[in-house]
Amino acid sequence: MVKPPIPISVDHLKFRIEYIENYLHSSEALVAGKEFPPKLFVTKNGEKIVFRQAKREEAKIILQAIKPLIDHKYDKDLYHLVAARTYAEILAWLQHRYKDEYVIIGVHGNELVGVWNARLWDENIAISLHSLTFKRLARIGLAGYLAKIEHAFDILGVKEWWATFESPFGFRMGFYLRHITKPYPEYQHELGGSPVFYITKDVWESLIKPQYKEYLGTRPVPEDLLQESYKLQPPSKYEIEITPTKK
Ligand SMILES: CC(C)(COP(=O)(O)OP(=O)(O)OC[C@H]1O[C@@H](n2cnc3c(N)ncnc32)[C@H](O)[C@@H]1OP(=O)(O)O)[C@@H](O)C(=O)NCCC(=O)NCCS
C-alpha cells in the first residue's frame, strides 16, 4: 500500500461495477457496423457452404461445437490445441474481452462446419487468430481462411494480414497463399510460437485473389440457403479423420 502524498477526505471509495466495466469492455470501433457480405462456396462434392459473419448470439452454439474437441484424444493434427484456443477467443468475443475481433462461420444447411476468427490490431494490421474446420477433405478450411482475409482487406480496409501457424495443415495454407515472414524474434505474433507470416494488400489483390478465385465463392447467397444458415446448430458429426494413402 502506498500512502497518498497529501490528505484524502476518506480512506476508501466504492466503485460501481458499470464504471469498472468501462475499462474492461474491449473496443470494437474498428469492426462495428462493417459486416462481411455472406457468400456461397460449393465444394468439389457439391456441398453448398454458406460463409457469413457470426452473430454474437450464436457464440454459445459455436462454443458447444468446439468443446468436444478439447480433449487429448484430439491431439492429432493439433485439433485439441486449436480447439482450446479458439474456444477461449470466442468466449472472450462473447463477453467483450477481445479488441476488434470478428468471427466468420461456415454453415452447411444449418450445421456449423467451421470457425475462422481474427481481430484488428489497428486500422492497418489484421491479426489472424484461428481456423478450425469440422469437415475436412473438401477444402472448406482453405475457403474459410480466404474469407477471413477477404473481410480484413476488402471490407475493413487493412494494409497487412499477420498470421502464425500451429499445425502443418495450417502452415500449408499460409505457404500456398504466399505468406512470408517478418524478422523473428523482432516481430512476434500475439499467439506466440512461430514467426509472423504476413501478406500485404498488394499481394492479396495481384496474386492471391486471381489464383484462388474458385475458393472465393459467389454472391449473393440464395435466400433459402441464407435463412437456413441462421437456424444454426452444432455439427451432427465431426469429419476430421484423415487416413494417409499407402505409397
Ligand atoms: C487447417 C485446416 C483448417 C485446413 O482445412 P482444409 O483446408 O479443409 O484441409 P484439410 O484439413 O481437409 O486437409 C486436406 C489436405 O490433407 C492432405 N490429405 C488428405 N487426404 C490425404 C491422404 N489420404 N494422404 C495424404 N494426404 C492427404 C492433402 O494435402 C489435402 O489437401 P488437398 O485437398 O489440397 O489435396 C484444418 O485442417 C483444421 O481445422 N485443422 C485443425 C486446426 C488447425 O490446425 N488450424 C490451423 C492452425 S495454424
Write the layout of secondary structure elements.
Elements: H1 17-24, E1 39-42, E2 48-53, H2 59-66, H3 79-94, E3 101-108, E4 111-120, E5 125-133, H4 140-155, E6 160-163, H5 168-176, E7 180-181, E8 197-200, H6 201-211, H7 223-229
Helix pairs in contact: 2-3
The site of coenzyme A (COA) has 23 residues, from helix 3, strand 5, helix 4 and helix 5.
Sum up the structure in keywords.
binds coenzyme A; alpha+beta; 247 residues; Aminopeptidase
Low-confidence stretches: none
How many runs of DSSP E, i.e. beta strands?
Answer: 8
Give the count of structural domains: 1
Bound molecules: coenzyme A
Find the CATH topology.
Answer: Aminopeptidase
Structural class: alpha+beta
How are strands sequenced across the largest beta sheet?
1-2-3-4-5-6-8-7
| H/E series | HEEHHEEEHEHEEHH
Query: What's the alpha carbon Rg, rounded to whole Å?
Result: 20 Å
Q: Measure the end-to-end span.
A: 68 Å
Largest sheet, strands/sense/barrel: 8 strands, mixed
Shape: globular
Task: Give me the CATH superfamily.
Answer: Gcn5-related N-acetyltransferase (GNAT)
